[in-house]
Amino acid sequence: MYAQLVETGVKRLKTLEEMSEQERAFQEKIDAEIKIEPKNWMPDAYRQTLIRQISQHAHSEIVGMLPEGNWVTRAPSLKRKLQLMAKIQDEAGHGLYLYSAMETLGADRDEEVAKLHSGKAKYSSIFNYPTLNWADMGAVGWLVDGAAIVNQVVLQRTSYGPYSRAMIRICKEESFHQRQGYEILLTMMRHGTQAQKDMVQDAINRLWWPALMMFGPSDEHSPNSAQSMAWKIKRQSNDELRQRFIDQTVPQLELLGCTAPDPELKWNAERGHYDFGAIQWEEFYEVLKGNGPCNQERLATRRKAIEDGAWVRAAAVAHARKKHNKNAA
Amino acid sequence: MSEWTLFEVFVRSKHGLNHKHVGSVHAADAVMAIEHARELYTRRNEGVSLWVVPSALITASSPDEKDPLFDPAEDKVYRHASFYELPAEVGHM
Asked: Which residue ranges does UniProt annotate as crossing the membrane (chain B) (predicted)?
C-alpha cells in the first residue's frame, strides 16, 4: 500500500527447529505479541525488511505532498486553501515520524533519501498519477487517504515498537484528511453546477483503480508476504485489506450519487462482500518500474527541493556555529 | 542534513504532568530543534511545554541488562503496602 512489494530477501520460512537459539527466542517474542525495540537483537533480514518498508512508507508521505501541492495556489476559497495546507503539512510530519522510526534501525536518513532520488527506492504507485481538477483533491483525501487508513490501522499492531508508535500517531491525524476530502466531493455534488458534478465523477473514474492497486498485488503474487506476516511486520493480506476498503467505500460512493468505473462491482449477499472486476496489474508494475504518468516529474521535483535547499541547511549550521562560538567567548 | 544534530523531543501535555518522550527531530541547534518539534509534535494542542536533548547525550540501559537491573526488585514484596496485613478495625491506612 504505502509500502508495496517490500523484499524480505527470504525464500522460505524457517521452522522453529531450523532457527538458531537467538532467532527462536526472537520469533517466540513475536508470536507472544511482545514488541521488538531498537536495542533488542533481531535477525538482519528483519532489520533490512523494516528499513525498506518504513523508508518506502516515509517516501510515500513525502512524495504524496506533491499531487496536492499542485492545488494550493488554485484552491477555490481561502478556507479550502488553509485545509489543504494543513493536510500537506501533516503529510510532511508523517514522513518525518517514519524517517525517525527508520533511523532507530541504524539506517541513515540522507542515504535512504538519496536512494529515493536515484530511483532505487520505491514509493507508493498512487502518487505517480496527476491531479487534474479540483475534485481530485476531494477524491485523493477520500480514496487515497481512506485506503491508507485501512492499511495503517492494521499496522498499529506491527511488531516493531517505533513503527507501531508512529502508526498510532499517524492514524489519529489521518481521519481529518479523509473527512475533508469527502466533504469537498459532497459539497460539489450537492451544491455544484453540472460541470462541477462531472468533475467529481471524472476524478473518481481516474483514481478508483489506482486506489485499489495501493494495497499491492493479489495474495498469490505477493512473494514476500509469508515472511512479513510471520514476523508480524504485516498483519493482514493485501486482498483482505483491499476487500475491506471496497466494502466500506461503496456505500459512501452511493451517498455521493456517483459510480465506480467497474461494471462488475456489486454486492454479493452470499459472501457478505462486494464483488469487483479484475485489476489491470500490468499498469501497476509499469508504474512501479517508473513508467507511470508522473514518475519523472515527482522525482525531479524532490531532487530540486533538496538541491535548492542546500544553502539553507548550510547557512543554518554556520549560524548555529557562530552563535555557539559567541556564547563560548 | 548530515551536519545537523539528532535531538530527542519531550512534550508536557498539560500543566502538572511530566514531560513525555514523543520522538526526535534533526536540527542545526537546540533553538531550531524546539521550532521543529513544535511543528512536528504539537500541531493540535498536544502540549504546553517542550524539551529537546541531543540524542547522543542520553545513556540508556541495555535490554540485556534487564535481569540484573530489575530482577532484584521482584523478591522484595515487603516494599509494597499490600504486604502488610492489618486488622479491619484499623480502617483505611
From this structure: none
pLDDT at A213 over 70: yes
Q: What's the pTM value of the predicted model, to 2 decimals?
A: 0.90
In angstroms, the separation between the Cα of residue A295 and the nearest Cα of chain B is 25
Rounded-to-integer distance, Cα A197 and Cα A244, Å = 27
Per-residue pLDDT tens over the stretch A45-77: 999 999 999 999 999 999 999 999 999 999 999
Instruction: Classify domain A14-326 by CATH number.
Output: 1.20.1260.10
Q: Give the pLDDT score at A225.
A: 83
- Alpha-carbon distance of A316 to A160, in angstroms, equals 34
- Residue-wise pLDDT for A298-313, tens only, equals 999 999 999 999 999 9
What number of C-beta contacts closer than 8 Å exist between A and B? 46
Whether B12 and B47 have beta carbons less than 8 Å apart is answered as: yes
Binding-face residues of A in 63-102 toward B, CB within 8 A? 86, 89-90, 93, 96-97, 100
Distance CA A244, CA A250 (A): 10
Of chain A, the percentage scoring pLDDT greater than 70 comes to: 99
Nine-digit cell string for A191: 451544491
The pLDDT of residue A48? 95
Q: Does B40 touch chain A (CB under 8 A)?
A: yes
Residues of B in contact with A316 (CB under 8 A): 4, 27-29, 32
Angstrom distance (rounded) from CA A158 to CA B10: 24
